[in-house]
Design a protein that fits this description.
- By secondary structure, the chain is of the alpha/beta class.
- It has a single domain, classed as NAD(P)-binding Rossmann-like Domain (Rossmann fold).
- The chain contains eleven helices and eleven strands.
- Strands 3-2-1-4-5-7-10 form a seven-stranded parallel beta sheet, with helices on both faces. The protein has a two-stranded parallel ribbon with strand order 6-11. Strands 8-9 form a two-stranded parallel sheet.
- Strand 8, helix 5 and strand 9 form a beta-alpha-beta unit.
- The radius of gyration is 19 Å and the shape is globular.
- The two termini are 35 Å apart.
- The mean pLDDT is 92.
- InterPro entries: DUF1731, Epimerase_deHydtase, NAD(P)-bd_dom_sf, SDR39U1.
- It comes from Maribrevibacterium harenarium.
Length: 295
């Protein structure tokens, strides 16, 4: 199978390439010129893509939504790296692929302190919903009798790197803890399950439409903070006031101070068996992986 991966140099992309390169698949990574791609991947530009026949597209591209304040310029960059790029990739392909697997996020649902969201729950309007909806619509435009489209709505992906790496230093110094009262929901998923679900989606035609990629164990942010500190053998009792987060990050602080309870209903219907369904075990596994990688 000839597979095109966008976002090939990102956190999920690097893990996915390692998982796929030992198979009989031919991997292509969409990049700018002179950008190094992972081993076993052939780099292609958008122009070069017009001459390739691709069987499957795995669309991981998208700038980190939590990397900076949501200024008008930043919002445009987030839109272009998701929506505009998705449209450009699909339009560049000379033939429709058999499968498109495109990322989205649980931000699609908006935030709420008590509501529980599955793939068919009405979302709450707001910036993250609008961005994810436009991203999903761009991917779904490829859907036809020839092309199956699966939309994976990711929770916070935990692994050796990514979001967890950015949290690590404060927790190591004992400054990690709940944000505000920590009562908001924290939908999470282990990187191993993300990669396994992507690969399963490649090979199982029942994986189509929106799919929540989150652990079946729903936890609140204060529970996550305590479990992460425990995995690092550190305390987690210093709260960060919401007002401080708002002052530091503006509108973007809602990613850190609010959340949504999301359940993986479609994965449960598809009888997917999670590798890491428990948060404490997942965090301990990640810390052990980190130790092993530095051994």
């Amino acid at each position: 199978m000839k597979i095109l991966i966008t976002g090939v140099t990102g956190f999920v992309g690097r893990h996915l390439c390692r998982a796929l390169k030992s198979s009989s698949n031919t991997l292509y990574g969409l990049t700018h010129k002179n950008v190094k791609v992972p081993d076993g991947v052939t780099a292609v530009t958008l122009d070069e893509l017009k001459h390739q026949t691709i069987d499957a597209v795995i669309n991981l591209a998208g700038q980190n939504i939590a990397a900076a304040r949501w200024t008008p310029a930043r919002k445009q960059a987030l839109y272009d790296s998701r929506v505009t790029l998705t449209k450009a990739v699909l339009n560049a392909l000379p033939n429709p692929p058999k499968t498109v697997i495109s990322m989205s996020a649980v931000g699609y649902y908006g935030t709420h302190p008590t509501r529980c969201f599955n793939e068919f729950t009405q979302p709450i309007p707001g910036y993250t919903h609008e961005l994810c909806q436009a991203w999903e619509e761009a991917a779904k435009s490829a859907e036809s009798e020839q092309t199956r489209v699966a939309i994976l709505r990711l929770g916070v992906v935990l692994g050796n790197g990514g979001a967890l790496e950015k949290m690590r230093l404060p927790f190591l110094f004992g400054a990690g803890g709940p944000i505000g009262d920590g009562e908001h929901w924290f939908p999470w998923v282990h990187i191993d399950d993300v990669i396994n679900i992507i690969i399963t989606s490649l090979n199982n035609s029942e994986y189509r439409g929106p799919i929540n990629v989150v652990s079946p164990e729903s936890v609140k942010q204060k529970t996550f903070a305590k479990a992460y500190a425990h995995s690092l053998k550190r305390p987690a009792f210093i709260p960060t006031p919401k007002l401080v987060m708002r002052a530091l990050f503006g509108e973007m602080s809602e990613l850190l101070t609010a959340g949504q309870k999301v359940i993986p209903e479609r994965l449960q219907q598809l009888h997917y068996s999670f590798i890491h369904p428990n948060l404490t075990e997942a965090l301990m596994d990640i810390e052990q992986q980190r130790v092993n990688s530095h051994a």
